[in-house]
């Protein structure tokens, strides 16, 4: 049996590091903690859509590794980005055959950034696939996604931990960040500098919302993995799993979420 409390989970973006969200979900489910509502940005939106569709965490990881999501992207001939996301449409259609939020078994909210109007938009109804593509559309790398005449890019630009949709709806809000940045004093090259700067910016975005969470899970050191480092998928999954088990065992109040109270 599941808890009678409404539990909302918000998943951050972070490229392949988002596979750690699957490890988090596995650990939560093993402890009888199940979300009643899920929100996500970028990788968090991808993981959330698959989970809310009914796939179990390990099954989702196998799909991501087997398909190698990024190989489906092709060069874009335009001034707005280097790659097009159109080629991933077939992939989404295969694993999310019912392209509608209403088909999901668990309610999902997807965050994306309206680039022209400069604001976050939360998608929770209508077509499902395009909002997911928009939420994971890294600006400058991919062409923006058009929805309803407006153009959208990665939700992490403005909100990399979309907890707001759970406020006033859920009894408990769990935030999950997959970009923990270890202390590092030696920047070896410009690539390291850019990566560290981008992650610092993403985390500032996340930490500004941390106080909105009742519980906050952040597997340590994930930022050492590259955004496209699919070869490390199992390590990343395991990091999320082990960190969440430790978090559950060290937080009695959190563990209680999986203990069903019987009404007499």
TrEMBL record:
Pfam families: Patatin. Signal peptide: none annotated. Residues 9-167 form the PNPLA domain. It comes from the Bacteria. The keyword Transcription does not apply. A motif (GXGXXG) lies at residues 13-18. Keywords: Hydrolase, Lipid degradation, Lipid metabolism. This is PNPLA domain-containing protein.
């Amino acid at each position: 049996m599941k808890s009678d409390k409404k539990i909302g989970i918000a998943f951050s973006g972070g490229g392949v590091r988002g596979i750690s969200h699957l490890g988090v979900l596995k650990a939560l489910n093993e402890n009888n903690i199940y979300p009643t509502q899920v929100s996500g940005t970028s990788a968090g939106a991808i993981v959330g859509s698959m989970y809310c569709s009914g796939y179990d965490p390990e099954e989702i990881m196998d799909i991501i590794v087997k398909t190698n999501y990024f190989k489906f992207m092709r060069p874009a001939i335009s001034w707005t980005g280097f790659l097009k996301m159109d080629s991933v449409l077939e992939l989404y259609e295969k694993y999310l055959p019912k392209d509608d939020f209403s088909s999901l078994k668990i309610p999902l909210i997807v965050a994306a950034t309206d680039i022209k109007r400069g604001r976050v938009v939360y998608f929770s109804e209508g077509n499902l696939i395009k909002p997911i593509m928009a939420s994971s559309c890294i600006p400058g790398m991919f062409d923006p996604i058009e929805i309803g005449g407006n153009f959208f890019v990665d939700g992490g630009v403005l909100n990399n931990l979309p907890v707001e949709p759970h406020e006033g709806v859920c009894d408990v809000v769990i935030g999950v960040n997959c970009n923990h940045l270890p202390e590092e004093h030696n920047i070896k090259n410009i690539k390291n500098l850019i990566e560290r700067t981008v992650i610092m910016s993403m985390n500032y975005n996340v930490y500004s919302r941390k106080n909105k969470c009742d519980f906050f899970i952040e597997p340590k050191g994930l930022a050492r993995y590259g955004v496209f480092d699919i070869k490390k998928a199992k390590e990343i999954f395991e990091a999320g799993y082990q960190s969440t088990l430790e978090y559950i065992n060290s937080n009695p109040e959190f563990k209680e979420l999986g203990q069903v109270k019987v009404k007499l």
